[in-house]
Structure formats: structure tokens, C-alpha cells
């Protein structure tokens, strides 16, 4: 405990509490994220198509509600109130799913998604409020919080794999319930420390404050039946969300072409092009808890020596790669840039797509070598490693890129849209996973050809997009600029030699 206190001694009050809150708050999401498809197909006996569609909608709701939570926090409810309220709803959701029936599964999923969707942004807001704008310790605090989140994922994935081996789903969701409840306890014990600072809610009159509090609570509770209703019709919900995304895309294209500042318009054009690459990457990446999980269960030999690898443990390949690979890659890039290598946004996006292509194209090789049997685990392991390296190339710069490319008046819209594309990618991942065949008996022979065809097609698609970005690197570099441009008419006037 003394070493922990020393670690956070130089950080503002509340930073250590938020680090531990992040760990326990992540447990429930890690459990459900890694187990939803298996639980739906193995325990509830839902079809692969329905289970993968639900997983896609799960991701879309999660990212979409993050945006809504960012709007509610600090405007209708304080961030600490919304976080605790969201965690309480999340705890109820895990408890309902633990009952083990299909009816309670949908009810629990609605509670859980409402809670997890709304409260994630609150932790980031509470953390950033601990610092002044110019405080250099902010970046380190967020890195520690990101580490705490990955600790939560590692524990959640590991425990989920243990209970998966014994098929004790009820015990697993009870564990998630207790873990999330600990996050609430830590928040309550540090309640005064986590108070909001400099939010719009603190500036309103007392009468308006009470009305906003009541409205915020009503929205939190009222969202649950709305999400439940939409989960009953995942196909229709998927169509609605895709329609919303199409409308947002059309709006961004319109704003780009109508924008008057040429330099900013060029940057916005680069954003639109890079969005296509991002959408392709995340659509394949988010197949990990979905179609790739089913492939691992039915068509991969998960015995490594005398140890049987549980499906949820495979997700920890990504967790370990991110934690260990992040600092290594950052150091490598620093050295390469010092030696004159040009490593920029277009090149990193293109490289991430090419790595994703290889990650999927090696899977058919493993299937081919397995013949009528199950693929060796090493092929799936390498696929996850390559995907994780690709994530390190595209994920950290994605959000940072918005501040560089988005005009000031559009930064909120473009940041929100970037998160929305991740939700849309989750839906596409569900669509791709829905193409996976239903398991036929105990052998992999019947489904191996279908997996080869699907993974080959997805890998080829990523390869095409990646190569297209490689060809577009010179164009993207010309579009992305910090230098203000002089309109042609002004340039012409400036170059006219005055008559004397």
C-alpha cells in the first residue's frame, strides 16, 4: 500500500482512486464482451446468426451511448452521480443475466448496456478535471488509467475463461456483479474527492440544478426499456443505426465541400479518406469476440502441451501485446524518426490495414495445412499478434488526428463521428460473423472450407484498402497541412505588379 501511495504521491487527489475504479469498472464489460456469443449459442441455444447480430448491436450501442453519456455528464447529472448510477444499472444487468433464462438475458443486457454506455466517459471526465489545462502530469495519469483498464480486461478475460471451462455461467456473471459493485464502493468512499469541477451544471441556479438532476435520472432509467425494445429486434435496430451513420457521413461530406477555408477543407477531405481505412480495420478487428471466437471453439486445436486454452483467454493476447508493445513501438518510432524515417498518419493507417490483411490471410493457410482436422493454435495466435500491432498503429493516432484535421467549429462533430464509425464497424463485424456456418457435429471438416473462403475474402478486402491507402499516401500528405493557403483570387491580386 505504501508503494502505491508513493506512486501516486505526485498526482492530484483522486487520481489513485480513479485508477482502481477503472480496474473494477472494466471487469463486467470484459466478462460480457468475451462471453456474450458463447453464452448465447451454448447456453441459450441461439443461432450463430442471431448471436453475432446481437454482438454487433452490443458494440454499436456501447459506443453510441458513450457519446450520450458525455453529453449528460456535467449537464444533467454530475459525472460522479452518472458514473455511480450507470454502475448500479450495470450491476443489475449482470445479476439479471446470471439468472440464466433468455427473457432475463435480454432484460439484463438492456440494463448492462445502458450503464456501461453512459458511465465510461464519466471516468475520463473526472480524471481530466483533476488537472489544469497546462498540467504536464495529465498524460501520465491517462496512461496509468489506460493501464488500469487493461488490468481489468486481463482479469475479466482470465476469469471468464476459467468459468467457461466449467460452463458455470451463473457464477461468472455473479463475479462480474461483485467486481462492478466494488467500483461503486470505491467511488462512494472517495465521493468528495471526485466532485465535478468547472462543468455547466455547477453554473445553474439551485432550482434549475434540481430539475436537471431529475431529468438526468429520468433519462438514465428511461433508456433501459428503449434499449430492451431495440434488442428484441436486432435486425431492425442494426438497419436504423446504419441509416443514422449514412446520414452523418452525408452531412460530413456536405460540410467538407461547403467549407470555405481551403486548408481546413483539405484536412477534412483527408479525414474522410482515412475514415474508410479505419472502418475496414475495426470491422475485422471486432470479429475477435464474435466470429473468431466461434472459429477458435469449433475449428482450432486449443491444446498447447497439456494445457487447454479457453476461448476468452485468447483475448489476452491483445491485452499483453498492447501493454508491452506500446512503449516498444513508441521508442522504435522515435529512433526511426531521428534517423530520418518519415512515419506519419497516412503511412501508419496503410500499415495497419496491411497487417490486418496478413492476419486474416494466414488463417486459411492454417486451415489448409490442417486438412480435415482442426487448425494449430499458433496460426490464430499469430493472427491476434498482427491485429494487435495494427491496433497500436491506428488506435492511438485516431483520436489525436481529430485535433489536427478538424476545424475548431467541427471538432465535437468529427470526434463524435469517429466513435460512431467504431460502432458501425461493430455492426459490420456482426454481419461478417453471421456468414460463419453453424457448427456441424464434432468435426471441423464440414465448416473448414467456409472459414477459408470467408477469411480469405476479408483478408483480400483489407489488402485492397491497404494498398489503396499506400497509393494515396502522397495525396494525403498534400491534403494534411498546417500551413494556411491563399485563395487563388487573392494570390493573383498579390502578384500583380502595380503601375507607377
Task: Give the structural class.
Answer: mainly alpha
Give the low-pLDDT segments: 485-500
Q: Output mean pLDDT.
A: 86
Strand content: under 5%
The CATH class of the largest domain, by name, is Mainly Alpha
The CATH architecture category of the largest domain equals Up-down Bundle
Radius of gyration: 24 Å
Distance between the termini: 82 Å
How many domains? The number is 2
Portion in helices: over 70%
User: What is the overall shape?
Assistant: globular
| SSE arrangement, N to C | HHHHHHHHHHHEEEHHEHHHH
CATH superfamily membership of the largest domain, which one?
Answer: MFS general substrate transporter like domains
In short:
With 500 residues, this protein is mainly α. The chain is 77% helix and 2% strand.
Amino acid at each position: 500500500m505504501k508503494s502505491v501511495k508513493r506512486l501516486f504521491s505526485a498526482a492530484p487527489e483522486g487520481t489513485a482512486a480513479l485508477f482502481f475504479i477503472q480496474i473494477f469498472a472494466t471487469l463486467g464489460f470484459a466478462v460480457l464482451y468475451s462471453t456474450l456469443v458463447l453464452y448465447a449459442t451454448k447456453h441459450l441455444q441461439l443461432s450463430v446468426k442471431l448471436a453475432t447480430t446481437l454482438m454487433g448491436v452490443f458494440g454499436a450501442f456501447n459506443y453510441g451511448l458513450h457519446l450520450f453519456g458525455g453529453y449528460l455528464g456535467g449537464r444533467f447529472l454530475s459525472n460522479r452521480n452518472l458514473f455511480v448510477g450507470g454502475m448500479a444499472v450495470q450491476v443489475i444487468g449482470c445479476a439479471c443475466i446470471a439468472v440464466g433464462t433468455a427473457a432475463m438475458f435480454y432484460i439484463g443486457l438492456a440494463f448492462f448496456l445502458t450503464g456501461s454506455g453512459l458511465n465510461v466517459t464519466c471516468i475520463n471526465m473526472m480524471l481530466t478535471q483533476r488537472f489544469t489545462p497546462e498540467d504536464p502530469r495529465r498524460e501520465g495519469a491517462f496512461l496509468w488509467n489506460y493501464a488500469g483498464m487493461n488490468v481489468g480486461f486481463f482479469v475479466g478475460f482470465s476469469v471468464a475463461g476459467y468459468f467457461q471451462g466449467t460452463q458455470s455461467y451463473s457464477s461468472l456473471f455473479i463475479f462480474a456483479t461483485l467486481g462492478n459493485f466494488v467500483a461503486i464502493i470505491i467511488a462512494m468512499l472517495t465521493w468528495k474527492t471526485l466532485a465535478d469541477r468547472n462543468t455547466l451544471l455547477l453554473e445553474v441556479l439551485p432550482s434549475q440544478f434540481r430539475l436537471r438532476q431529475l431529468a438526468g435520472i429520468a433519462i438514465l432509467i428511461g433508456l433501459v426499456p428503449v434499449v430492451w425494445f431495440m434488442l428484441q429486434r436486432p435486425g431492425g435496430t442494426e438497419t436504423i443505426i446504419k441509416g443514422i451513420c449514412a446520414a452523418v457521413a452525408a452531412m460530413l461530406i456536405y460540410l467538407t465541400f461547403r467549407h470555405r477555408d481551403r486548408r481546413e477543407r483539405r484536412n477534412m477531405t483527408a479525414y474522410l479518406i482515412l475514415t474508410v481505412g479505419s472502418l475496414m480495420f475495426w470491422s475485422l478487428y471486432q470479429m475477435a469476440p464474435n466470429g473468431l471466437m466461434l472459429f477458435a471453439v469449433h475449428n482450432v486445436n486449443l491444446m498447447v502441451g497439456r494445457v487447454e486454452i479457453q476461448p476468452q483467454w485468447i483475448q489476452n493476447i491483445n491485452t499483453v501485446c498492447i501493454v508491452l508493445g506500446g512503449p516498444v513501438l513508441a521508442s522504435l518510432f522515435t529512433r526511426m524518426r531521428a534517423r530520418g524515417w518519415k512515419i506519419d498518419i497516412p503511412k501508419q493507417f496503410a500499415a495497419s490495414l496491411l497487417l490486418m490483411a496478413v492476419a486474416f490471410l494466414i488463417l486459411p493457410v492454417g486451415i489448409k495445412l490442417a486438412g480435415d482436422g482442426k487448425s494449430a493454435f499458433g496460426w490464430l495466435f499469430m493472427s491476434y499478434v498482427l491485429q494487435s500491432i495494427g491496433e497500436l498503429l491506428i488506435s492511438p493516432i485516431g483520436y489525436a488526428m481529430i485535433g489536427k484535421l478538424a476545424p475548431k467549429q467541427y471538432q465535437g462533430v468529427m470526434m463524435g463521428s469517429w466513435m460512431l464509425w467504431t460502432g458501425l464497424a461493430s455492426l459490420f463485424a456482426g454481419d461478417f460473423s453471421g456468414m460463419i456456418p453453424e457448427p456441424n457435429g464434432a468435426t471441423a471438416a464440414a465448416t473448414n472450407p467456409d472459414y477459408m473462403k470467408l477469411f480469405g475474402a476479408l483478408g483480400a478486402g483489407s489488402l485492397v484498402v491497404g494498398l489503396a491507402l499506400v497509393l494515396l499516401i502522397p495525396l494525403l500528405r498534400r491534403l494534411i497541412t498546417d500551413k494556411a493557403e491563399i485563395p487563388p483570387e487573392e494570390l493573383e491580386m498579390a502578384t500583380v505588379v502595380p503601375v507607377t
